[in-house]
Amino acid sequence: MGDFATSLNIIVSLLFSLLLISQTVLGKRECDLFDGNWVYDESYPLYESSDCDFIEKQFDCSNNGRPDKFYLKYNWHPNCSMPRFNGEDFLKRMRGKSIMFVGDSLSLNQWQSLTCMLHKSVPHSQYTNLRNGLLSTFTFQEYNVKVMMSRNAFLVDLVEESIGRVVKLDSIESGNKDWKGIDVLIFDSWHWWLHNGTKQPWDFIEEGNKRYKDMDRLVAYEKALKTWANWVDRNVDPSKTKVFFQGVSPDHMNGNEWGEAKAKSCVNEERPVEGDRYSGGSHPAELVVERVLREMSNPDLVYLLNITTLSQLRKDGHPSVYGHGGHRDMDCTHWCLPGVPDTWNQLLYAALVYQDYN
């Protein structure tokens, strides 16, 4: 029965791939997986946090005492067909390959989600989960698949010098050292560009031979992304490496943005915004991402996981006060697991498996 189910899944995958090809006109998909709405679905979540004892406490909202359960039950419905996540199929297709998330704690959020989704799919398959400095590697030994997380909040270099910590907007040595030879790269950056005061991780911003104490953060972000995009243009062979950029993950600290003026944060939010439009409008950092990707020498090198709008609708999905158990700090930036990052990974799966990214 198991072999039959696996064969059936593969047949369905092939049929879905043909469907997407038939929906392509002049190289542009008519089917937009990122346009849709959230639907209550009793078959969700795809896993429980108890299935994965490696999930970090800050994402384990239910075990940290969050009493409501609605946030676990919403499934993203694009305005076209999207297959349900099949972790075993994912691992078989990725056999012998390496997948690396590169970015900040939102990348960590997505990496933890994917490792748990895959582990839930093959619970008896042995794995190792190792951390070496800023690199974490989760290996599914039976499939020889490595799913890695490299902490790199700015993508460009952050260097300790005699004058202090310097963000170098036009230097990206970490790419030459860590990213080459990886089969699938998923990048993310934005939230650390916003930090100031004691949380600001740099003392100077450097561009060329000029140093600044500060500059407009969106401007700095765009300059850094252009350096990253140039690195991809020069170094990525699309026949060997597939590159994704995770769209900007929104926070929810101002209820005016979703039409609830009295809401000062995401606390006590239990359901998504209804419909498919977010009254707060486009995220300015996401517009920067889209512009930089359009202006690349080869824009087709990078697939944008355009998760911003669908995540804006999920004001209910953050840990709020349930991110650290006994600590009551407000967290409207990260996401509970199970939760919204599972959908990001369903979209990653669809892109890798069904849209000529395999």
TrEMBL record:
One of its GO terms (molecular function) is O-acetyltransferase activity. Keywords: Membrane, Signal, Signal-anchor, Transmembrane, Transmembrane helix. Residues 30-79 form the Trichome birefringence-like N-terminal domain. GO terms for cellular component: Golgi apparatus; membrane. It is found in: Membrane. It is a single-pass membrane protein. Residues 1-27 form the signal peptide. The keyword Transmembrane applies. Pfam families: PC-Esterase, PMR5N. Its main location: membrane. Residues 82-350 form the Trichome birefringence-like C-terminal domain. Belongs to the PC-esterase family. TBL subfamily. PANTHER family: PROTEIN TRICHOME BIREFRINGENCE-LIKE 9-RELATED, TRICHOME BIREFRINGENCE-LIKE N-TERMINAL DOMAIN-CONTAINING PROTEIN. This is Trichome birefringence-like N-terminal domain-containing protein. It comes from Acacia crassicarpa (northern wattle).
